[in-house]
Amino acid sequence: MNQRTRTTLFIPLAACSLALGPVTAAWAVTAAPHAAPAAQCFVEPKAGDATKVTVTGEGFDKAKGKVKVDRTDGDGGTLVTPGADGKFTATDQPAGKYEASQVNGPSATCLAGQEAQDAVNKNFIDSERKRGTREGFTDGKELAQAGVCDAEAKPKVNNLQGLTADNEAKKKAQEAYKAAYTAAFDAAINRYCTD
Fold first, then answer.
1. Which of 13, 25, 61, 74 is most buried, most CB within 10 Å of its CB?
2. Phi and psi of 55, rounded to 5°?
3. What is the Cα 67 distance to its own chain's centre?
4. What is the pLDDT of the chain when averaged over all its residues?
5. Where is the signal peptide (predicted)?
6. CA distance 128 to 28
7. How far apart are alpha carbons 53 and 77 in whole angstroms?
8. For residues 137-174, b (16+ Cβ closer than 10 Å) or e, as one string?
9. Which residues contact 30 (CB under 8 A, 6 or more apart)?
């Protein structure tokens, strides 16, 4: 390929990518698509009965039908139907290790003990960070569009949502929510308030 052909092809491509960069970034902030959650599964011992467990899962697709909850270290298991939110619960299962799967759908190895608690904590912190970002940007945008450009972020941390996390994770989730809320709030104020 000669120099003239390379220049003729490269310059329009470079100009298009530069022109689309800010548009793409602006779209990402205001209209980020929600990704489907990855399938997860947890095994919790039943209170008062060491021979039984409750298996819960999320990130499954109700449209794909029943979830097979299969004990991998012995006899046991069941079929359950996930709810519209993709979650399921199988109670009074024999204690053991489990996997959950759907035909032509997601599957997950069920976590138990500290490994499950760590996953629950991480999910909780991540969900609070996302909630803080969403709520902070929305609140900041509303105030900025109303002309209140000197507003300060006021995170609503008393409203924690999500899974049952331990106390340390709850504290980290509150911090993550506050930080995300404040950053998103400030970004909205800066974006929508013009001097």
1. 61
2. -105, 125
3. 21
4. 80
5. 1-28
6. 19
7. 11
8. bebbbebbeeeeeebebebeeeeeebbebeeebbebbb
9. none
The pair of three-digit structure tokens given for residue 35, joined into one six-digit string? 């990704």
Q: Is 45 helix (H, G, I), strand (E, B) or coil?
A: strand
Single-letter residue type at 123 = N
Q: What is the full DSSP assignment across 17-32? A: HHHHHHHHHHHHHH-P
What's the predicted TM-score (pTM) here? 0.61
The mean pLDDT of 146-154, rounded to a whole number, is: 89
Domain boundaries, the chain: 40-109, 116-192
Residue 9's pLDDT band, with cuts at 50, 70 and 90, is very low
pLDDT digits (tens, 9 = 90+) for 151-190: 888 887 665 554 467 888 888 988 999 999 999 999 999 9
